[in-house]
Description:
By secondary structure, the chain is an alpha+beta fold. The chain has two domains: 3-172, 3-Layer(aba) Sandwich (Rossmann fold), CATH 3.40.50.150; 179-277, Calycin beta-barrel core domain (Lipocalin). The protein has five helices and 16 strands. It has helices spanning 3-24, 37-46, 64-73, 84-96, 127-138, and strands spanning 54-58, 76-81, 103-107, 120-123, 145-149, 160-164, 166-172, 179-185, 193-200, 203-210, 213-216, 218-223, 226-233, 241-250, 253-260, 267-277. The strands form two sheets. Strands 11-10-9-8-16-15-14-13-12 form a nine-stranded antiparallel sheet, with no helix packed on it. Strands 3-2-1-4-5-7-6 form a seven-stranded mixed sheet, covered by helices on one side. Helix 2 (37-46) crosses helix 3. It is elongated. The protein starts with a helix and ends with a strand. S-adenosylmethionine (SAM) binds next to helix 3 and strand 2.
Amino acid sequence: xxxxxxxxxxxxxxxxxxxxxxxxxxxxxxxxxxxxxxxxxxxxxxxxxxxxxxxxxxxxxxxxxxxxxxxxxxxxxxxxxxxxxxxxxxxxxxxxxxxxxxxxxxxxxxxxxxxxxxxxxxxxxxxxxxxxxxxxxxxxxxxxxxxxxxxxxxxxxxxxxxxxxxxxxxxxxxxxxxxxxxxxxxxxxxxxxxxxxxxxxxxxxxxxxxxxxxxxxxxxxxxxxxxxxxxxxxxxxxxxxxxxxxxxxxxxxxxxxxxxxxxxxxxxxxxxxxxxxxxxx
Length: 281
Ligand SMILES: C[S@@+](CC[C@H](N)C(=O)[O-])C[C@H]1O[C@@H](n2cnc3c(N)ncnc32)[C@H](O)[C@@H]1O
């Protein structure tokens, strides 16, 4: 089925199902439409789930996503859904699979759920709900993976998109790096360095000062708490070299290594940066 036809059917089912449910009990933001098994497998594969993960499904339906994560990868699972019957069904299924101690379900509004335990969050919700969740998800711990069946997170560009019958999207929550940073390093001559970084989700650019001169940043990449970029050491025009930085962001500190040059002439150094001013509005 093509995507626009699916979307129409999905929206039509919303029109039919929601008013009836809303009259009986509480309002559901999205009706229960289960994710097909191969799409679940692709979502978990794309997120790189392992037995160290806690996989949480927001609007967990009959519990199939966290239960599959536990069965296939030995992950722990969490699910929240507003519908008490679906929560009951999920618990019964987890019990039957011998996973009652690894997978937990709660009847709760997903907007009120505590997401702090999750290392992977799975989503199959409508675009409006995804838009409302965007900021909350962006503020989760850097490195948390978000994987969605069919719908995007507003204007936050995914880190990866795959298609196995349906679209699946992956986002890795990036560290917050915007602002002004001052560096120390063991590069030859211990040059003074500053960077001014701008950030929109995982997209980062900026410019800096290297040894009191304007310096361009190249190939800036941010994935979770890991940042990489390059700059050119042009202090000696006869002996220019690219410097390849990689580091881990931990709040207002970044620490890592920098490789100056390539091949046999490459040298390895350490660097540390401290944020000295927040991002300009
Ligand atoms: C499209 S289904 C997805 C079910 C499951 N995640 C899957 O992929 O198979 C959406 C689910 O979200 C639940 N839901 C809708 N609004 C919710 C809310 N505000 N809080 C928690 N669950 C909600 C519905 O009951 C439904 O089970």
